[in-house]
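User: I need a structural model of Thymidylate kinase from Rhodococcus koreensis for a docking pre-check later this week. Nothing fancy, just the predicted structure tokens so I can convert them on my end. Input:
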Amino acid sequence: MGTLIALEGLDGAGKRTLVGAVVARLAERGLTVGTLDFPRYGRSVHADLASEALKGAHGDLADSVHAMAVMFALDRSGAVGELSALLAGHDLVILDRYVASNAAYGAARLHQAADGEFVGWVANLEFERLGLPRPDLQLYLDVPVALAAQRARGRESADASRSLDAYERDRGLQERTGEVYRELAVKDWISPWWVLTPDTDPVTLAENLALLSDDTARRDEKEHGTP
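Assistant: Understood. Predicted structure tokens for Thymidylate kinase:
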């Protein structure tokens, strides 16, 4: 069984770039790495409905924090089989966003902290009721809001199909979301967290993840008696 790693961060934090560099380094070391991005836009009706709502469609759907969280949770629930297959077939599986993104953005919209009601509700919904696998490690790419916003705008300028949604345009929401992410990391919410900075060396990160994967494999061998 592979090691499940979730990479979190604000819109425009640079998660995709970091994942690409890390995956390349891990492959050089001979490790197999699966990746999956959430939300699964273009593949999941729930993700697409949520995206459309954030751009003004579907009436007042986007106004409800809990309704939007359910849409994103159902997107992930629909990927449980794919996640299981990735974990069975790879040494590591790296996710671009996972359950913590639902907790952080929703809590920030409600002006709650990481110890508020909403974060607990998300954990119960996704891990307990929907049965999503818990990550072995969560990474938070902590990038200044101004830098993340600049990158998001640049992405929009370069690709007309990637217009900013309501979350990305809300500077205050992005700042509050970053604060909730930091609180989740301090609490080691659900699993251990590592906080990364914009100058994180992907080679060093890849080496540390490889060590984690080795530790997970040894733990599984001990627990299940695998030779």
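Before docking, keep this in mind: Strands lie at 3-8, 33-37, 92-96, 137-141, 193-196.
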